[in-house]
Specification:
- The complex is a heterodimer of chains A (about 110) and B (about 110).
- By secondary structure, chain A is mainly beta.
- Helix content of chain A is about 0%, strand content about 55%.
- In chain A, the strands form 2 sheets. In chain A, strands 2, 4, 5, 6, 9, 10 and 11 form a 7-stranded mixed sheet that branches. Chain A has a 4-stranded antiparallel sheet with strand order 1-3-8-7, with no helix packed on it.
- Chain A is globular, with a radius of gyration of 13 Å.
- In chain B, about 0% of the residues lie in helices and about 50% in strands.
- In chain B, the strands form 3 sheets. In chain B, strands 2, 5, 6, 10, 11 and 12 form a 6-stranded mixed sheet that branches. Chain B has a 4-stranded antiparallel sheet with strand order 3-9-8-7, with no helix packed on it.
- Chain B is globular.
- Classes of the chains: A mainly beta (about 110), B mainly beta (about 110).
- At the A-B interface, strand 4, strand 5, strand 9 and strand 10 of A face strand 5, strand 6 and strand 11 of B.
């Protein structure tokens, strides 16, 4: 058990819809990261938050947004969903930056029908 | 930009065989290097890490040495078990002003047969 909790585990929805993925980091971790895992793109970094502030942005679409709340949990919002958004979305957390390893949740599997 | 290249799988082995998964990287700074493992239906678990040149990371019988001169971080295990069947990801973290995201290789699926 990594200590990172993601909900829901599975999400099935239709094109054009909006969903919210939730992540609770390990106790004491200030950084939260979101990654997308798909068959064609592999594991891609989306965005990082550190103590409530956006720290780094990767290959995140404009239709996607995220935030980290004062209690350090994070949400990833995906809107105007397309078939190609079907993927496994992982959240990871770490104590801070530098050489601290990231610990991953079990992911949310998003299926767009 | 940063990139990680690892050997494509699947790699199929018999129990007690020697496992090597090659990983090379390109980075502009001085990255930390990681191996993560993903078992079926689960998230990624940190297997081992190395933060500077010549460091050796080790865990559960797996080892990898940070080789700056060859920009490599190959994963090895002397005697694999069926329970080692999983997908293995090599990754780097190049901490800087742009945060410390992980850049992953494509993953190598390993199947160990009894």
């Amino acid at each position: 058990d990594s200590g990172v909790t993601q909900t829901p585990k599975h999400l099935i929805t239709a094109t054009g819809q909006r969903v919210t993925l939730r992540c609770s980091p390990r106790s004491g971790d200030l950084s939260v990261y979101w990654y997308q895992q798909s068959l064609d793109q592999g594991l891609q970094f989306l965005i990082q938050y550190y103590n409530g502030e956006e720290r780094a942005k990767g290959n995140i679409l404009e239709r996607f947004s995220a935030q980290q709340f004062p209690d350090l949990h994070s949400e990833l919002n995906l809107s105007s969903l397309e078939l190609g958004d079907s993927a496994l979305y992982f959240c990871a957390s770490s104590a801070g930056g530098g050489n601290q390893p990231q610990h991953f949740g079990d992911g949310t599997r998003l299926s767009i029908l | 930009g940063d990139s990680v290249t690892q050997m494509e799988g699947p790699v199929t082995l018999s129990e007690e065989a020697f496992l090597t998964i090659n990983c090379t990287y390109t980075a502009t700074g001085y990255p930390s290097l990681f191996w993560y493992v993903q078992y079926p239906g689960e998230g990624l678990q940190l297997l081992l890490k190395a933060t500077k040149a010549d460091d050796k990371g080790s865990n559960k019988g797996f080892e990898a040495t940070y080789r700056k001169e060859t920009t490599s971080f190959h994963l090895e295990k002397g005697s694999v078990q069926v329970s080692d069947s999983a997908v293995y990801f090599c990754a780097l973290s190049d901490f800087g002003a742009a945060g410390n995201k992980l850049t992953f290789g494509g993953g190598t699926r390993v199947l160990v047969k009894p």
